[in-house]
Write a structure and sequence with these properties.
The complex is a heterodimer of chains A (1068) and B (358). Chain A is α/β, with parallel strands linked by helices and 1068 residues long. Helices cover 36% and strands 19% of the residues of chain A. Among the domains of chain A are: 116 residues, Rossmann fold; 65 residues, ATP-grasp fold, A domain (Dna Ligase, domain 1); 160 residues, Carbamoyl Phosphate Synthetase, Chain A, domain 4 (Orthogonal Bundle), CATH 1.10.1030; 133 residues, Rossmann fold (3-Layer(aba) Sandwich), CATH 3.40.50; 105 residues, Methylglyoxal synthase-like domain (Rossmann fold), CATH 3.40.50.1380. Chain A is built from 36 helices and 40 strands. Chain B folds into two domains: 146 residues, Carbamoyl-phosphate synthase small subunit, N-terminal domain (Glucose Oxidase, domain 1, 3-Layer(bba) Sandwich); 199 residues, Rossmann fold, CATH 3.40.50. Chain B is built from ten helices and 19 strands. The chains are: A alpha/beta (1068), B alpha/beta (358).
């Protein structure tokens, strides 16, 4: 069936801010889909509240709205833009839910807008627990015994009937929010009541627990003619019980015979056909490990994280094909872009093995429980490809950038056999390392399997890696041994450590014995057809298919690896735009990256894609083949910056700012020297190496001080200390992770935080705009609300900021991007941080100013001048809009994480509020972040002494809005003295009714809890915040955020929002 | 670990380790892209006369489950893999591939770059090769031998020696065994058919004498044109009014019996991902395939037959419907095993052709 001619203008709904369970994969899917639609001449209207995405770029869609994802906004947008269709299946659960609400309200029908991709009936059949169960029963597909409940009592009654343990799955949530396994009634009540609250429809599925079964997924596609195919299947190494997003996953399945494989494949096709899905769909199964019994766990009637992984694992562009299907094409009409010869109606055949490992945020949330459950916790993931499983696993491990490079990286050697057996019961992110240690201690495969339920096949593969460690440590390093170690992807540095040699010696031996990496192509068809798409992975031993010859100049773009807190999707935006800009300048572009969720690892972004770990050795292997004319490191975040030195050693020219100058910005002493030369003040500080030195430095500066390691991103390990004890404790934490660089101790200044991104061509600078943070210094810039244009600073200060930026860029000889953070105390401007690279705010500021910073910076890197590109140097005139970037957190997903904000970044994503007035922008920003008040108009305030005076004013304003304020003793006292009718409440340890009862009573909208700086010695605040978050209450921990929120609430009478088409913002 | 060598007739030599038997073998080298179902591939009689290379690199992961065999023994002359799992894991696993190959004296080679081999076969076409453990091989001596090698008649090697019956209460089906995979008989038997399996050299008269309700022509190995005697019998079956369903070699033999031609594909279709389009409904099905030859439909006389299925990738013929006859034939494998079961509905169609008696 050809394209439906009635579809001319399509609204694509994105997935909003990055949160755990809904990450960059939807930007990848959405971007691919938009490009696919535009290819067909469709006018694309895009809605997404996330400014860091590539899909919200005017290159991707015709009309771009970065607005809150609410029903009201979509309705208004439909009225304004009058699309004929809405494509809801590419924006994750958020997009799907919105479309469903509109459909249920009858709005779409009323305005003659059709849902394309998949019908609402289909969505309901797949998403509504009861309808899904009925549908499965109808076609004879088994599901685990289950019941949808809307209250706790029914849940208990049903569980008593089917027996513990049970799995709880709230309906219409993402990443399994609020779900879990309950082993007893107490747990059941806890998880169930939480889940009921989090579900959009107040429903939770109580289900027979099939934990320990094999977890298998199929990615299937179907067109409107009923043709269906499976793109691939995947096997979770972690059996059922761990969310697939937190599991180590291998594609294709490894332990299934053809009978099992086909049984589940046929089932998946039956399901997609019965549901009538047109597009992509993901079916998850639990397969009994010792029989053919299986259960359908879940069906996602849309593009998902797994489909992004499947696309990258196979080369089959699911989102692109799904978009074409939505337009009416059938699978046999859509060409396979990889081979150019075959069609989308085929099934990819892999001749390699793919391993995905989740990137978990426990390095950020040190207090959080590391346990993995059915509630997803990972912020991102890495993928690797190899022709053997061991190699793929080893590559994936070192792609994580969590100081792990082998199965020896977490040390469990101190545990006895018995302790280890006990610890094997723990299901967390370190499980495979524990299994490796168990194997070293001679614990049998069967014992390990009995405890972990991990298939023996995988355990044996871990054993092969452990045996290699032992062989390297104990045997002579022969050519055969080294060849075998490289075949299973032991990195040179690990081999060096085990053989007690230098890494350079291993490299030399490899050279002598000609043991080099070669590259194989991901071609969707196991080499059956010649492919035209250069998408490569490395193997040792075999023919090299990558051809480094080129008659064009070549540039290597280093990606930013897995999404983690502090290094998110923004850097993928930068990498992709940089790649496109180089291509426009006639360069052949080569990307190395390992994140399957991103746009940068789509097969048609760069001329060549190498799906590889971002370590010096892996990068060097690519460099040896490609011999690029230069590399850019300034767009790939700290991951790329860290590779600078290694690239220089390889003889690769660093394009843009030189390595010495990158170093100068990060090396405290060099940097101080530059600041002095430029006459720019910065908070006093010292560089130290030990705890003693740190304490001495802190006392000299006077508390509070800021302690942090150099060379970090996202404020990792950064803390404010108010006394010696704090300093001591922080140094301990910092040293827990490998620390090759010194520690910085700075005087902590309270003031306004200002941020600028600038492009420098060596002479002139271009500053698109000045951003001001709502929260005062002390809260990580990534967690602060950022306002453009800056509202409260004088023009003199702005001039100073412009001047300092210019001086710094010039003396650091910046060619390309620079990001500077300032503190403004009165009229005094201090520099607190300089990053000679692209930053988190670049996508946001590019979009709201209409200045394409990354392409400009790329051109500058290639020798163009700012003036010749038509820009007047310096600070650009302010835009006609107010744009407010709001951080978004995923605290409810991470049990035990402290949510109070500080110098260490904690947010996972961001959204934007853009409007013609400040108040509307602020309102939109809060709305986009999901803070939708009021509900009950009850709030709790507990404020540290220093902030009490300011809190009074804020409390008065809340009270004026009709809020009833509960407060703890001292806060209540101050409020009452100031005429606020605060209700004094008992602290947690005091008798009921206390704060906890209030929170658990589900009548509280908001908790404003401003903790003391430094280490919190009472657990009270922590417990309040956690409980509030876990019961879905909004919690603010900074007084400035509270003020902004009340301002926003005072302006909620804004009925009709003004929707702004970002694609039309053009300042040039 | 003993070294083994795969020598191709174009002079390429791959060095790996020996698996299975140590004996030397010359054969036609083909590749199969299935990611699961290695045992079904090994026991598919259509691989007689060939050495098969699996493009999926990890083979043997779930061991050998004898009940999954498509015939009583492995048929390829040789087996070529990237890596054999040292520890199979599956609740049904009874043995390892290593032992299985040894027991049936089939030589193989592991540890070679199977993707590089596949690329050679794709670019240059299927060719002959030798698997040997002799380190002192002499290419000058071997290559002419490889070039001269022909597979010859293989159907007679793989067909059953005497007829057997699978009991059933439904239609009586005569299954001509040219190297039939078990699941063909099973698929019919599961639908209630009483299936009588005949050796390939059975005459049409004998089959028709038993007055079957339907005749099933099976898959099988080799060049269909070698089967000159069988083709004559197939022509006689065509002329009867008994409904006929044919798969793979059976499909080619029916075409040859009716004056059509077959030609050799450059490197064949072997795997579980080939899309075929049912020209009657327009639906596309993913099919299991294993064939090196294909029916030529360029000069097809619509009075004899019309194409029923076509391969979406390369447009080659995948099935024929015989005009005015109750006969249809497919190039692919609706019996799957290994591979997708999407086209198993064709057995139902055959049931309907036989009068829907089931």
């Amino acid at each position: 069936m050809p394209k439906n001619p009635d579809i001319k203008k399509v609204l694509v709904i994105g997935s909003g801010p990055i949160v755990i369970g809904q990450a960059a994969e939807f930007d990848y899917a959405g971007t691919q889909a938009c490009r696919s639609l535009k290819e067909e001449g469709i006018e694309v209207v895009l809605l997404n509240s996330n400014p860091a995405t590539i899909m919200t770029d005017k290159d991707i869609a015709d009309r771009v709205y970065i607005e809150p994802l609410t029903v009201e906004v979509v309705e208004q947008l439909i009225l304004k833009e009058q699309p004929d269709s809405v494509l809801p299946t590419l924006g994750g659960q958020a997009g799907l839910n919105l479309a469903m609400e509109l459909e249920e309200k009858g709005f779409l029908k009323e305005h003659n807008v059709r849902l394309i991709g998949t019908t609402s009936e289909t969505i309901r059949k797949a998403e509504d627990r009861q309808e899904f169960k009925d549908t499965m029963e109808k076609i004879g597909e088994p599901v685990a015994a289950s019941l949808v409940v809307t209250n706790v009592e029914d849940g208990i009654a049903f569980t008593n009937k089917i027996g513990y343990p049970v799995v709880l799955r709230p309906a219409y949530t993402l990443g399994g929010s609020g779900g879990g396994i309950a082993y007893d009634e107490e747990q059941l009540i806890e998880i169930l009541s939480n889940g009921l609250r989090l579900s959009r429809v107040g429903e939770v599925l109580v289900e027979r627990c099939i934990a320990g079964w094999k977890e298998i997924e199929y990615e299937v596609m179907r067109d409107s003619a009923g043709n269906c195919i499976t793109v691939c299947n995947m096997e979770n190494i972690d059996p059922v019980g761990v969310h697939t997003g937190d599991s180590i996953v291998v594609a294709p399945s490894q332990t299934l015979g053809d009978k099992e494989y086909q049984m589940l494949r046929t089932s998946a096709l039956n399901i997609i056909s019965e549901l009538g899905i047109t597009g992509g769909c993901n079916v998850q199964y639990a397969l009994h490990p010792e029989s053919f019994e299986y259960c359908v766990i879940e069906v996602n009637p849309r593009v998902s994280r797994s489909s992004a992984l499947a696309s990258k694992a196979t080369g089959y562009p699911i989102a692109k094909v799904a978009a074409k299907i939505a337009l009416g094409y059938t699978l046999d009409e859509i060409p396979n872009a990889i081979t150019g010869k075959t069609y989308a109606s085929f099934e990819p055949m892999l001749d390699y093995c793919v391993v995905k490992i989740p990137r978990l945020p426990f390095d950020k949330f040190i207090s959080a429980k590391r346990t993995l459950t059915t509630q997803m916790k990972a912020t991102g993931e890495v993928m690797s490809i190899c022709n053997n499983f061991e190699g793929a696993l080893m590559k994936a491990i070192r792609s994580l950038e969590q100081h792990v490079d082998s199965l020896m990286s977490y040390d469990f050697t101190a545990l006895s056999r018995e302790e280890l057996l006990e610890e094997l019961k723990t299901v967390d992110d370190m499980r495979i390392w524990r299994i490796a240690e168990a194997l070293r201690k001679g614990i049998s495969y069967e014992e390990i399997h009995d405890i972990t339920k991990i298939d023996i096949w995988f355990i044996d593969k871990l054993a092969i890696l452990v045996e290699m460690e032992q062989a390297l440590a104990n045997e002579e390093l022969t050519e055969d041994l080294l060849r075998e170690a490289k075949r299973i992807e032991f990195p040179d540095n690990v081999i060096a450590r085990l053989t007690r040699r230098k890494e350079s010696e291993i490299k030399e031996l490899r050279r002598q014995w000609n043991i080099t990496a070669s590259y194989k192509m991901v071609d969707t068809c196991a080499a059956e057809f010649a492919a035209t798409t250069p998408y490569y992975y490395s193997v040792y031993g075999g023919e090299n298919e990558a051809d480094g010859r080129s008659d064009r100049k070549k540039v290597l773009v280093l990606g930013s690896g897995p999404i983690r807190i502090g290094q998110g999707i923004e850097f993928d935006f930068c990498s992709v735009h940089c790649t496109w800009a180089f291509a426009k300048e006639g360069y052949e572009t080569i990307i190395i990256n390992n994140n399957p969720e991103t746009v940068s690892t789509d097969f048609d972004i760069a001329d060549k894609l190498y799906f590889e770990p971002l370590t010096p050795e892996d990068v060097e292997n690519v460099v040896n083949i490609e011999k690029p004319d230069g590399a850019v490191v300034q767009f790939g975040g700290q991951t790329a910056i860290k590779l600078t030195e290694a690239l220089i050693k390889m003889g690769v020219k660093i394009l843009g700012t030189s390595a010495e100058n990158v170093d100068a910005a990060e090396d405290r002493e060099l940097f101080d020297q530059i600041l002095e030369e430029c006459h720019i003040p910065r908070p006093k500080g010292h560089t130290v190496y030990t705890a003693d030195e740190a304490i001495r430095a802190a006392n000299e500066l006077g508390y509070p001080v800021l302690v942090r390691p150099s060379y970090v991103l996202g404020g990792q390990g950064m803390q404010i200390a108010i006394n010696d004890e704090d300093v001591d404790q922080y140094i301990g934490v910092i040293n827990r992770i490998a620390q090759e660089h010194p520690i910085l101790v700075d005087k902590y200044l309270v003031g306004k935080e200002i941020e600028v991104d600038a492009v420098c061509d060596g002479e002139d600078i271009l500053i698109p705009g000045i951003m001001e943070h709502i929260e005062r210094a002390g809260i990580h810039s990534g967690d602060s609300i950022s306002v453009y244009p800056a509202q409260t600073i004088s023009s003199t200060a702005k001039k100073t900021i412009e001047e300092y930026t210019k001086r710094l860029a010039q003396s650091l000889h910046v060619i390309g991007m620079i990001n500077i953070q300032f503190i403004l105390c009165g009229e005094e401007v201090y520099v607190i941080e300089v990053n000679p690279r692209s930053s988190r705010t670049v996508p946001y500021i590019s979009k709201v100013t209409g200045i394409p910073i990354v392409p400009l910076a790329t051109k500058v890197i290639l020798g163009h001048k700012i003036r010749e590109m038509g820009y007047e140097p310096g600070l650009q005139p302010e835009a006609d809009y107010f744009a407010i970037k709001m951080p978004v957190f995923s605290f409810e997903k991470i049990r035990g994480a402290d949510i109070s904000l500080g110098p260490e970044m904690k947010s996972t994503g961001e959204c934007l509020g853009i409007a013609e007035t400040f108040n509307e922008a602020l309102y939109k920003a809060f709305l986009g972040a999901g803070i939708n008040l009021p509900k009950h108009k009850n709030m709790i305030m507990t404020i540290r002494d220093a902030d009490k005076p300011e809190a009074v004013e804020i409390a008065k304003r809340f009270e004026a809005l009709g809020y009833k304020i509960y407060a703890t003793r001292s806060t209540a006292k101050v409020f009452k003295e100031n005429g606020i009718h605060a209700i004094r409440t008992n602290k947690i340890e005091q008798p009921s009714p206390n704060l906890m009862d209030l929170i658990l009573g589900h009548k509280i909208d908001l908790v404003i809890d401003i903790p003391e700086q430094g280490v919190e010695h009472s657990k009270d605040g922590f417990v309040i915040r956690r409980n509030a978050i876990e019961t879905g209450v909004n919690v603010l921990t900074a007084i400035d955020t509270a003020r902004a929120l009340v301002t926003s609430l005072e302006n909620t009478d804004i009925k009709k929002l003004t929707l702004i088409d970002i694609a039309k913002v053009d300042r040039k | 670990m003993m070294k083994a060598f795969l020598i191709l007739e174009d002079g390429h030599v791959f060095t790996g380790t020996s698996i299975g038997s140590k004996k030397e073998v010359i054969s036609e080298i083909v590749f199969n892209t299935s990611m699961t179902g290695y045992l079904e591939v090994l026991t598919d009689p259509s691989y007689a006369g060939q050495a098969v290379c699996m493009t999926y690199p990890l083979i043997g992961n779930y061991g050998i489950c004898y009940e999954d065999q498509e015939s009583l023994r492995p048929w390829p002359d040789g087996y070529i893999v990237r890596e054999l799992s040292r520890l199979p894991s599956n609740f049904r696993s009874q043995d390892t591939i290593q032992n299985f190959l040894k027991r049936f004296d089939i030589p193989g080679i592991a540890g070679i770059d199977t993707r590089a081999l596949t690329r050679i076969l794709r670019e240059k076409g299927t060719m002959n090769g030798m698997i040997t453990t002799n380190e002192n091989y002499d290419l000058d001596e071997i290559i002419p031998k490889l070039k001269a090698y022909t597979t010859g008649k293989v159907v007679e090697k793989v067909t059953c020696s005497e007829k057997t019956v699978l009991k059933g209460n439904g239609p009586k089906v005569a299954l001509m065994d040219f190297g039939a995979k078990n699941n063909i008989a099973k698929s019919l038997n599961q639908r209630g058919c009483q299936v009588t399996i005949y050796p390939a050299n059975t005459t049409a008269e004998e089959i028709l004498k038993a007055s079957p309700d339907g005749i099933m022509l099976s898959n099988g190995p080799g060049d269909p044109k070698e089967c000159t005697d069988i083709i004559k019998e197939v022509k006689k079956l065509y002329e009867s009014d008994v409904p006929i369903f044919a798969i793979c070699l059976g499909h080619q033999l029916m075409a040859l019996a009716n004056g059509m031609d077959t030609h050799r594909l450059k490197y064949g279709h072997r795997g579980g991902n080939h899309p075929v389009k049912d020209l009657e409904t327009g639906r596309v099905y993913i099919s299991s395939q294993n064939h090196g030859y294909v029916v030529d439909t360029d000069k097809l006389d619509p009075a004899v037959a019309v194409p029923a299925f076509v391969n979406v990738n390369d447009g080659t013929n995948e099935g024929l419907s015989y005009t005015g006859k109750n006969i249809f034939t497919v190039q692919f494998h609706p019996e799957a095993c290994p591979g997708p079961q999407d086209s198993s509905y064709l057995f139902d169609r055959f049931m309907d052709m036989m009068g829907g008696k089931n």
